[in-house]
Automatic annotation (TrEMBL):
<dbReference type="GO" id="GO:0006094">
    <property type="term" value="P:gluconeogenesis"/>
</dbReference>
<comment type="pathway">
    <text>Carbohydrate biosynthesis; gluconeogenesis.</text>
</comment>
<dbReference type="InterPro" id="IPR020861">
    <property type="entry name" value="Triosephosphate_isomerase_AS"/>
</dbReference>
<dbReference type="InterPro" id="IPR035990">
    <property type="entry name" value="TIM_sf"/>
</dbReference>
<keyword id="KW-0413">Isomerase</keyword>
<protein>
    <recommendedName>
        <fullName>Triosephosphate isomerase</fullName>
        <ecNumber>5.3.1.1</ecNumber>
    </recommendedName>
</protein>
<comment type="function">
    <text>Involved in the gluconeogenesis. Catalyzes stereospecifically the conversion of dihydroxyacetone phosphate (DHAP) to D-glyceraldehyde-3-phosphate (G3P).</text>
</comment>
<dbReference type="GO" id="GO:0046166">
    <property type="term" value="P:glyceraldehyde-3-phosphate biosynthetic process"/>
</dbReference>
<dbReference type="InterPro" id="IPR022896">
    <property type="entry name" value="TrioseP_Isoase_bac/euk"/>
</dbReference>
<feature type="active site" description="Electrophile">
    <location>
        <position position="92"/>
    </location>
</feature>
<dbReference type="GO" id="GO:0019563">
    <property type="term" value="P:glycerol catabolic process"/>
</dbReference>
<dbReference type="GO" id="GO:0006096">
    <property type="term" value="P:glycolytic process"/>
</dbReference>
<keyword id="KW-0963">Cytoplasm</keyword>
<feature type="active site" description="Proton acceptor">
    <location>
        <position position="164"/>
    </location>
</feature>
<keyword id="KW-0324">Glycolysis</keyword>
<dbReference type="GO" id="GO:0004807">
    <property type="term" value="F:triose-phosphate isomerase activity"/>
</dbReference>
<feature type="binding site">
    <location>
        <position position="170"/>
    </location>
    <ligand>
        <name>substrate</name>
    </ligand>
</feature>
Amino acid sequence: MSRRILIAANWKMNGSFAVNTSLLQAINGIQIPLIIAPPSLYIASVRQQLVGTTLKVAAQNVAAEAQQGAYTGEVSAKMLADAGVSYAIIGHSERRQYYGETDALVAQKCQRLHEFGLTPIICVGESLAEREAGLVQTVVERQLTAIIDQCGIYALAQAVVAYEPVWAIGTGKTATPADAQAVHQFLRELVAKYDKNIAENLYILYGGSVKADNAASLFAMPDIDGALVGGASLVAKDFLAICHAAKTSVVG
Ligand SMILES: O=C(CO)COP(=O)(O)O
């Protein structure tokens, strides 16, 4: 199997029309599969600026509700599809931590995306306390199984999984390539118990302080299919270096 690579940029709550435009101009020529997740207010503008490129746009979140209606502040999967958005991040640890999102809620969000043909970027990952308690596999298995139970294994045929250890996000601490690989392999084997083909074709990205100087060693791992990049995706030169490492890591 030849290696695939996918890079996703999670801009989180950063940017402005002017800042986004200059960042997009700097990264526009990148020749690898790339997804940009701006704050929802900027999705239409970013998408417009990416016309004619291979870059795709993602939302950072989606409503769990099935029907439109009185849900102040929410954006539905149907609206994202209407706006030409093809991906949405769900289950990010910041949403789990700061907005109380549970496994069940994340699974509902996955269901909504599935219904409207959007590809979820499903984030899983353990906290530092959970890692120290030896619960890494227990936690990521629980998080991913909640999705499989709700949406069915075939939903993962059109999905991306991102392993983001909470203790590595925005901290400058990265999982070692070997530690990350072990979790990625565990996740792929978990999916393979349901369907080998889906497991083999599933993109499993690593996220958590991916930088220009650690990207290549992460991408060298057999089950790391790219990265979900936060802070470094906001600095053109750093992001370009990560994309370059991704491109040179692809074999076959
Ligand atoms: O949360 C992340 C991507 O979703 C990772 O963020 P950092 O790259 O800033 O650690």
